Each structure stands twice: as structure tokens, then as C-alpha cells.
Amino acid sequence: MKIAVTYDNGNVFQHFGRTEFFKVYDVEDNKVVSSEIIGSNGTGHGALAGLLAGQSVDVLICGGIGGGAQEALAQAGVELCAGAQGDTDQAVEAYLKGELVSTGANCDHHHEEGHSCGHHEEGHSCGGHEEGHTCGNCGGGCGPALTGRNVGKTCRVHYRGTLNDGTQFDSSYDRGEPLEFVCGAGQMIQGFDAAVADMEIGQIIDVHLMPEEAYGMPDPTVVFTMEIAQVPGAEDLEEGQRVYLSNQYGQPFPVTVTAKDEKNITFDANHEMAGKELNFRIELVEVK
Description:
With 288 residues, this protein is α+β, with helices and mostly antiparallel strands. The chain folds into 2 domains: 2-110, Nucleotidyltransferase, domain 5 (2-Layer Sandwich), CATH 3.30.420; 120-288, Chitinase A, domain 3. Helices cover 14% and strands 32% of the residues. Strands 1, 2, 3, 4, 5 and 6 form a 6-stranded mixed sheet that branches. A 5-stranded antiparallel sheet has the order 7-13-14-15-12, with no helix packed on it. Strands 8, 9, 10, 11 and 16 form a 5-stranded antiparallel sheet that branches. The longest helix is centred in the first third of the chain and has 10 residues, at 45-54.
């Protein structure tokens, strides 16, 4: 079996139609035996679906994907697991364990809780999937333009992230591959970007970020309650579970189940790190 994942610097790329690379895994006896990174060699949903079919890919794991692309993949005979985030290797391992859940209809048998989640009248669909931590957004706001020797340059860093109690929530060292991003381009949370802006190659620093420099404070306006009957599959969800809903455009976004009774279920769309102080040890490996 072959599994392809939309690929960007070790993580699942979130826009299928724009992906430049796939990481393709050869699987035997439910274990990865080899992998390689290939170029997309074309643009557009049909071209990408055809590329995957030409590589004899059986399963695609990706982030966001539109209905046209889903149809093209289905016609090409490629099974879809959409809505994945984080490290590509971990996503494949989760798929092989039956723990990776798709927001697409083609992968319901990999649903962790065993329930099929479809669309309801509000335009949401739900699917359980443990979200991997990524720093690739502006969190609480991108802030003023950065200055420093590395701004505008592609930086590769190793890092370890911990909470104030010492709990580790992310580590590029554990993945064995540095994180690559363009400093100052808004790809990272504000405080992380600012910390790297003037570092020297080989330098290691420790930074403490307040919520405003990381994922911001929780926004009460993105906490919402719905009737369980309106969200197919919601009857099997539990408080504290991290799942995906999709908006009216079919784009998945992560939420946490914060409350549930016999009739209603409450979702919190705040980032799971919102309101938290974060600590990072950052090592600048390379600047391009």
C-alpha cells in the first residue's frame, strides 16, 4: 500500500490544490518500510489526483480540500483522509493505527470513535482527530513588522516547547527534523518569530512568551452551542475531545467539546494553547 501526504517542511500542508510536494510512504504489513518526497509536477485538482494515481497511491492524507478535489480523487481511486495537521510521519502512524480521522466521507472506517460525521444545515461537519501542535500561525496577532538580520530569510531551527509546569507540548528534536520558515512572514506565532529575528547560526536561546505573543487570549465569541441532532455523529463525542468541524466552504477547523447534555453540545474553536504562557528553547541551525 502507498500513502501520500501533502508535505511542507515535515508537516501536513493545508491546501491540497497548492501543494508543491507529497511525501509518499510504502507500507507493508501495516508498517512503513520506506518513504520519499516527490514534486507535485502540476497544478489543479485533476493534475494532482492524476499524479497520485500514476504513483499507485492508495490513500491521501491532507489538510483542507475542496469538493472538486475530493471528486477527482474518488474518480482516480484514491482514498481520502482530510483535516490532518502536524507532523506527516505521525499522521501516517495514526492512520495505520486507525486513529486518524477524516472530515471527508471516504475515510469513515478510520474514525476513532466509529461514528460517521456528515454535514448539517449550519454547514458544519464533524470528525474526531487529535490535533498536532503547530506554530504556523499568528496566534494573538502578527504585531508590528520585525527587524533583524534574519527577517525575510528562510530559517531552519530546532526547538522544544514547554508549559510553565514543565510539560512538553512540542519538539522538533523528537521529530528529528528542524522546522523551516521565513522569518517575519507571519508563518510563526509572534513571539517565536521575534526571538529568531536577530539570532546567530548555532545560537541557542530560551524565551518565555505571554499569551499575547503566542496564541492570544481565549475569545468567548468562538464558543458555540448546537443541538446534537444537527451534528451527525455528535452523539458519540465526549467532553474534552478535540475534533474538526467544517465551515460553509468545506474548510476544516479544530474545536474542543466543552459541554454536552442530552440535547445540546458546546464547541470551543479557540486554539488549545490560547491563554497559555509558553516557553521555547530555540536553536538556529541554518539561514538561507
